[in-house]
């Protein structure tokens, strides 16, 4: 413990001396990073496989180091990709104490429609991935990425954003693949500690946020935080044919807040409370060369995440959220002689993910302030202006357990009819099991009413939901209060199971300088209304026959996953009662009537569901010129049959496929093929630019589209023309343009690496109603106008310095600075209007590698 404290103190001391902090290197650094090089020796130039398509981007270990964000998660690396857009909340200044990975949209798709893999194992979580409210009384929050993977584990990350082959299915956005590397030496390792905190960050707050920040009682506005990350890793070749890597990473964040809002103090409860976030990642992976050509690998992952919260202005309201989980991954590659010259790849994986809550209390009571309910503070005016709430939402366990087998055969090229054919075929079999269990009955009591007695009409005294202490600001004739309304959520649960089956067949046909990829994918599962067949067609023309100029065409269909949430919501609603009220009779309290189960669960139905899909058309070109690999592409996507909450009529709600979206994305990318050398330095340059326009009927599947207000067919007047309400621009993940520039410089003589990432984003635009209307087609169309923010510019810097080698290895210091220029960048937040991204922020890491 003393060594950890000493290490923490060292980080703080250096951070304060610099006024700064830093980001993280890869856990497994190359040997050249630990040995002191000879002066003026340039780093090795690593050649990587050519990208097959303009719809593919691969980040190697050096690029991962360069793009590593302060929280070290996979999605932070993708800021360089011009086809990726981030959630507005990702950089919001008010919530920088959080650790969760940012949500991303790929080519306009919803953030929960991507496929995430690590070493071939799915990381996707299908337990209500849009559930983000930590204070929901029925459903703990969840996330589309089931495991929060630290980037220090990774060797490379590949993003497939368009023209994606038939091998991948059950997504409508893109595929993000992360891989760890096999060890290359007998023994190597690393330990480090990293920190950042609110005092190392410049807050950029709106006027309303600035006024309430010091007295904030909610995690939506975090005036202070402190983050620590501890990393330890070891890798080595146990034998010539068997090697292991292992790592342990712990991340913590503490967010002190007021227990009660408005700057007032509770008389009998803690006025300062600390929320906490944490995640652990214990990972082991092994590689075994059984015989030449026969390779096996395995990995074990234990990656739980957690959060400690409380309900603002409420006594005895602490609760603990659990997410993440465990995974096992097995792989085998071997030749298959009896099928011709083919190679078989097998992968068997299992994981279990949590989205659960443990609460201190299972009863919620909304009292008015009184002498015996004296912990509350003023929250409004009038008789209910001082509230003394107490209690919590009870315990809920949510789990998703998945197992999957993936098998793939790839043949060597075969000459047939004067053309070269490279065949691939694959099979996928999987099971998913979801469990929801409310472990404790939760009772919610509200609607404080006046009373002069707590005596019950049928005899006895109500001591639980009645008090004879006079409420604040009550009339002189009022003696006490009782709680007059309740809803009960009974203990109970449900389980849902699904079996998935998929297969694909693909042929790469090459004739001269033209290559055509013909693929088809079949998917079905027990929850789908029908099976799907998705064509994947691509054509590539090597114009000069030298690989320097390639023109690419694509026409592809991608089918999405069916979420358990659509089947589960009515089952959750079936656990609750209808609201009840009680009154006084002859001055005495009536007893509660027998609870009656709510019927609104029956309002919610599964319509004639279809499987959501996206049709994609692509035109692209790549060119090698001037030592630079250039690529440009145009992607058109039409999302159809998208699932959404559809209000057909009163008490007649459906999950069905009335949603749709359209995206038009144009991107330009450039990357140096060789480092630019000057003096003793070598610099790689990477550039990306996009122009994006996305329209959508809905932001998420939880949005409701209503026939009662004719939303699907209603016209509005916007940007000088009449358009359907359903075709309005998306209000998130929809920056009109973004330019990105990454400069990665190595100066080996000084053991120094410097990365500069510049990002300029176009003005964000939202719609607001003007209150006016215009006649249109026998009806009226509401008039909307644009409200735009200014352009956003950020400059992020990362400096990695390796100390001279001592003993077995060498120490290192990493300094990260985000938003170096401390620019105020506005963004829209659905609940708070225009807010701002964070200002300049420092992170510092100290470590030792050998």
From TrEMBL:
Entry's Gene Ontology cellular component terms: cell outer membrane
SUPFAM superfamilies reported in the protein's UniProt record: Porins
Major location (coarse): membrane
Region described as Disordered: 123-144
Biased composition (Low complexity): 129-144
Keywords: Cell outer membrane, Membrane, Receptor, Signal
Signal peptide coordinates: 1-29
Protein location: Cell outer membrane
Entry superkingdom: Bacteria
Family label: Belongs to the TonB-dependent receptor family.
Name of the protein this chain belongs to: TonB-dependent receptor plug domain-containing protein
